[in-house]
Every structure is written in structure tokens, then in C-alpha cells.
């Protein structure tokens, strides 16, 4: 009997000297220093932002910004400028550059991305943020900095807010107890996506037991979109290079239909979760985001080793890109690769704040696993 070969790949969890320890006030960002409730990062930079401590200035201080490339609607207080380099709707995961200019740079200045645009900054956590002097230390001398944010489609527009804690004592009548709070001094126009409701973020998982090691596999595709069941979400597929009408499925097994080009399609089931479905705060409140709708559809039983092309659609005319799926081989003598990784944290691939000692390895491991998958080392 053939003995399967076993390849093991390890992703080791990176530890830092501050792992599991309290972080002193001196190690926090300047705008957080002195706030007792923020003396722990809890492995997540956004846990250091308390929306209740963020304020917008009185409208009398807000100067409407002239129309920008990405539209009108932005504003700033005197002495600050914030601009975004987008022109029209952007694609999912686009990298946008935000430029901040001021004559009075300060280490307490930071920017944050919000979705939906116009969100109440005192009630909703930002999607991501960056401290300007950490992105470019020269900001403290020049008063000018460019920050790159990669924006993932959240089924809604984004906007960018600039904060300056040092603005309040000079320009507002707040009492000293409020001087630790950060004040929004500029806000960009909305940044929109091309068809934010389009099907995206497809992922494939096994959906049922395999009858025999060499038998067909049952696989499921799940994806998200901004449109519900009334838009008839569908999964379309065909075998790679299969001629038209080459594939047949036993009648009555599944509701499968055929279309031009040799593709077949099946209706998807649809579900949605709300804040009430989450465990507890902050997920039920300031941290909740409307994820949109989640769709699920099964492929027919696919022969091991086959290659399948598939795409997703709905009745609005929206169509995803076409994906390629290699169904894993199940021969008894086939090599087996086990990819093992620990809690790698959450890294970033832009200028947004991350706990780099803990989260940066997550990016490296993700890139390595993706490269191995593309090279055929992982099924």
C-alpha cells in the first residue's frame, strides 16, 4: 500500500516583549496618553480610539472646501487642508492617497477613515487610522504629509476625517476637562465605489462528506453583495475548456440550468446578520458594520483533479470576475500538505496603524500561503 507523503508548513506566531503586558501611557499615541481606559491595546489598534472622546467643532468654524476631484461636500477649519487623490468612483481595495497640509503641525494630528461617509464620529469607530508624524516624521517640520489608505468596499461610501487635539484650547471655549479630546478639523467629500453592491469576496469550502477517497467532492461557494434575495443571486460554472453541452447532471438532484458558453447556473440561498446577532459591545454598537448579504450555492459533485471556472451574478446585471477552482486530488498516494499557523494578528499593507510587532507577520504568512497555493503546493 502506498504511503501518502506529508509536507508540513509552519506559520509561527511572532511574539514581542509587550505581548500580554500593560502598555504604559508613554507608549501610547499622544492623543491617547493620560486616558486610563486606553492603557491596554488588546492586540487591536482601534481599541485605543474611544468615539465618545471625538468631537466636531461648532459649524461656525467649518469652512466648506471647494469642489475636489472626488466631489463636493468636504470642509475644514481655518489653517488645515485635507485632500484625496481619487477622481470618480474607485475599485474595491484601491489605494487612495490623502494629503494633509497645515501651518501648525503637531504630534497629536491623525486621520481616520469612516464608512459610511458622514458617520457620527462620536458614536462609530473608524475603519482605520494613521498618526501623521508616524507616517512621516518630517510632518512636524513641513506641515505636509501624504498617507496611503487601502479601502475595502464596505457596501457604502467612505470619507476621511483629520483630527487635532491641540486645536481645542485655542479655538473653542471648552473647559480643561475636555482638553484630552480630539477635535475633527477637516473632513473629505465622500469616496464612492463602482457598484458597491456587486458580488465579491468569494470563498470555497467543502459542504458535505466524501463517499470514497476517489469519489467526487461537494463544494460550496459563499460570497457577499449589497443586494438581497429579490435580486436572484446565482452561481455560474463550467469545467475548464469544456465544450458547450459537455456536462450533464442527473435530473432531480439539483436545480441546475444551462446557458450559453457551456456555463451552468444555480440559485443561491441568502442570509444576513445584524448588530443584534453579535455577542456584545463593541460589536453590537460602535464597532458594528452592515456587512450586506451573504449568499451560498453548491457546485454539483466535482471529480477530484478537475478544473472549474465560475462567476457570480444577480438580476441587476452585476457580474463578478471569473474564478478558477482546482478540485483537490484524492488519490491514496497523493502528497498531502498541512499548513499550520498560530494567531498571526492583523497586519496592514498601507499606512494605517497596526501593532507591527504582532500584526506584520500576518501579512507575510498570508503572502507566503497565497504564493504556495498559486504554485500548486496547496490544494
CATH superfamily of the largest domain: Purple acid phosphatase-like, N-terminal
Number of strands: 21
Structural class: mainly beta
Reported CATH architecture of the largest domain: Sandwich
Q: What general form does the structure show?
A: elongated
Look at the structure and give the CATH class of the largest domain.
Mainly Beta
Rg from Cα: 25 Å
In terms of DSSP E residues, the strand content is 25-35%
First-to-last CA distance? 23 Å
Put simply, the count of helices is: 4
Largest sheet: 7 strands, mixed
Number of structural domains: 2
Q: Spans of 5+ residues with little confidence (pLDDT < 50)?
A: 1-42, 169-179, 244-254
Helix-residue proportion? under 10%
Write down the overall mean pLDDT: 77
SSE sequence, one letter per element:
EEEEEEEEHHEEHEEEEEEEEEEEH
What is the CATH third-level topology name of the largest domain?
A: Immunoglobulin-like
Protein name: Purple acid phosphatase Fn3-like domain-containing protein
Signal peptide: 1-20
Domain Purple acid phosphatase Fn3-like: 91-164
Pfam families: fn3_PAP
